[in-house]
Amino acid sequence: AVADQQEMVAKEEQNAESTDYLIRQYKGQIEWAEDYLRFAEAGTAEAQEFEIQIVCVGDWALVAYPGEMFVDYQLTLEKESPFSRTVTLGYSNGCIGYVPTASAYPEGGYEISGAFKYYGTLMISSDCESMIKTETMEMLQALKG
After folding, report:
1. Starting at the edge strand that comes first in sequence, how are the strands of the sheet with 60-64 ordered?
2. CB-based contacts of 34: which residues, under 8 Å, 6+ apart?
3. Cα–Cα dist 105/90, whole Å
4. Measuring CA to CA, which residue among 138, 140, 134 is closest to residue 54?
5. How many separate helices (H) and strands (E) can be counted in the chain?
6. How many Å apart are CA 30 and CA 44, to the nearest integer?
């Protein structure tokens, strides 16, 4: 009988933890929706600031982005950078969340359809991959001279 009661208590604790988790998730989504509504009312819902910073040390370039970059950004820089070594750094100068590639959008998933809500930001569009890569390469070329 004691074992049964202990099992019931453990299940109730698990249910309470699950409920708390769901409440936190829903609160996060409500906060994001309220923020998005404020952006829309202010007329700023179409823009997301994205700062690119590059630091060069000899023939190395460190490219700092404000988010969690999909690996394709690094792979592209390895192939196309004028520097012998180019390293992508994420979470620099803030964090806007995941920064997917255009090919990731049709696949969907948490990184595309949900995560940005917890960062309190807008989801960047699939067009941004080419803008980010083009701007980065122009900056690298200018620094290389």
Report:
1. 53-57, 60-64, 85-89
2. none
3. 20
4. 140
5. 5, 5
6. 19
Q: How far apart are CA 145 and CA 140, in angstroms?
A: 9
| pLDDT tens-digit series, residues 91-144 | 998 888 899 999 999 999 989 988 887 776 778 889 999 999 999 999 999 999
DSSP 70: -
Amino acid identity for residue 90 in this structure: G
To the question of pTM greater than 0.85 for the whole model, the response is no
Say which residues have a Cβ less than 8 Å from residue 104's Cβ, sequence separation at least 6: 70, 111, 112
8-state DSSP, 104: G
CB atoms within 10 A of CB 71: 9
Q: What length does the chain have?
A: 145
* Structure tokens, 118: 């917890």
CA 26: distance to chain centroid? Answer: 20
